[in-house]
Amino acid sequence: MSLDYHSGNWYRVASVRPRLAGHMQAQRQLYRGVAWYVLIDTVNQRSLRLTPAAWHVVSRMDGRRTVQALWDDAVLRLGAAAPPQDELIGLLAQLHETDALLSDVVPDLDDLLRRRDRQRGEAWKRSLMNPLSIRLRLWDPDPFLARTLPAVRWLFSPAGVLLWLALTLPALVLAGLHWTALTHNVSDKLLSAGNLLSLFFVYPVVKALHEMAHAYAAKWGGAAVHDMGLMFLVFAPVPYVDASGSSAFADKRSRALVAAAGMLMELLLAALALYVWLAVEPGIVHALAYDVMLIGGVSTLLFNGNPLLRYDGYFVLCDLIETPNLAQRANQLWMFWLRRHAFGLTQAQPPHATPGERRWMALYAPLSLAYRVSITVGIALFLGHEYLYVGLAVGVWGLIMLLVWPLLKGLRYLWSSQEIAGRRARPYAVSGLAVALLAVGVFGLPAPLTVYAQGVVWPAENAHLRAAEPGLVSVVAVKPGDAVLAGQLAVRLSNDKLDTELGAAAARDDKQRLGYLTTLAGLRSGSAAEQPGHGRVALAVQQQDWQRASDEYAHAEASLARLDVAVRRDGRIELPRAEDLPGRWLKKGELFGHIVTGDAPTVRVVVPQDDIDLVRAQLLRVEVRLSGDLGRVWPATVLREVPAGDDGMPAMALALDGGGLIAVDARDSSHPRALNRVFQFDLLLPAEAAAAQIGERAHVHFVHAAEPMGSQLLRRLRQLLLTQLAL
User: What is the third-level CATH fold of 451-460+598-723?
Assistant: First the structure.
């Protein structure tokens, strides 16, 4: 037998005669075709998964055999598969910590008290480590569930499944059809003072039904549910249920059903709320239904249904891929790689896992950390948009717990761990080198720096066809594709209001002209000789009135003349939706066509205010990809820039609803207005890009001098604080 199987601490436990406590039960389960054994504590619903070799030892703990005898029997029966002595000592320690063992040794009351205090302290520490989830136990719901289960058992039958599908699937289609109305201005709706009061009452009710669905599913499968209380999720009190007793279920689908029951309940509530929201008029019921939809949909997507957080979706994933304790074992695997390959600790042992499990574990740890950081930052920004200091508190607390605290634990390991005692040189050197390389990589090495924006291919100068005055299209004098000359009539509009205004202006002009001539004739005839000053003043007033009436007539005549829209450039005319033009009402300034002139095309691009300083400084080149040929990069030059920002948008295609990047006020689609200030640039493409279609989307990269990633991150953080958090 290899000396690896022996331990220097074996003498401490060899003579102990352990036996399992009476409240411990075992359940055989299959994971990836291999039999495992789950040891369940029926009192507090804690569980421990054992390998077949470990179970061979534990199952024989009857209080008569010593640990030495148990290990000798395992070596005799299992051979090389027998657990090493160090592993068996660790297993005994785990069982001891969970109060699963009884032995012939008189219990150390001080040790029991220390373990009790340590377990309580670890529970509080876990709560503090997750700033979005703090638990407070309140009630044992098992007797209530046993009494009421017969009334709801039918929900877990095929009839219940069909009813759930009949209610939720149509709601999913309706949500897609009304997506714009559902998502418009959601942050202001959700975080308004009145809606927060509504959420205070709605959220606990929805979550209570969510948790009762877990509890009933677990009870339906035969598990006991003894723990229910409050969990402070993002500081909001919501119920929780400990249904971990379902981990003893032999069928993985039954375990997954218990984990998914809460999400299924929330989706059902969201579907019912959508039907109510569509049926009732705006008011209290309408607002409450909207809140239920947000809670049931958004929380399921971002929290409960996402396997990267340790909520319902995580346990569903663990059951379906047959990889229990995925998060913990993933962290253990990465720590093993670090200790074995970076620190050179050859005695480090990897967590037991099959090759398939190891692939899941390798991916899960970094993805989970990245998502937890991003969701914490996202929640902080969402809250900080309306409540600055609350958002800052959540963001700082979350990042400290997710990043700073693990770093401090790592430093403590390097400083005081006995595992590296006497050989700390390599761990210190590797850690210092990693920090130095990270610092150099983040703050020393230049990284590509670009600003991405979107634009549209824009007609050449004076090549637009716009309605100078509002009117109804009465004559279309050209056809799409016709060759036209400058000055040629394209479209004639009619506007009865302008005709009426012209007639009224003409009448006023005639009236004022006649009044002026009458006053002038009277002055010349001498009828005002007795009061010559009065006659000249009256004549001056009449002259001013006539001049004003003449100006109004000229303006009305010019407005009527502008109803004829003429071509201003030679070229080929393009009229999108030409078949809809006759009889169509055009607003003043509305673009309805353009002239293809053969000039090099231009791109009108919209740059958000956050990026304008960077675009104006250190610009090396501009690269453009057209949506019709994304594989080709066109060089471009800045033709002109609007020096002052405004809310004007050249096209609705650049708005979020049109697939763009800019949030706009969607109430006026013909004249889209950005919610935040934007800056417009005109870019000149080379003549080879003449085939670009007017109105085609352009993806623009403003390329700048390379800059370290740390500097870029600091700039973005400063912009974030200045804009999103209004600092």
Answer: Elongation Factor Tu (Ef-tu); domain 3 (2.40.30)
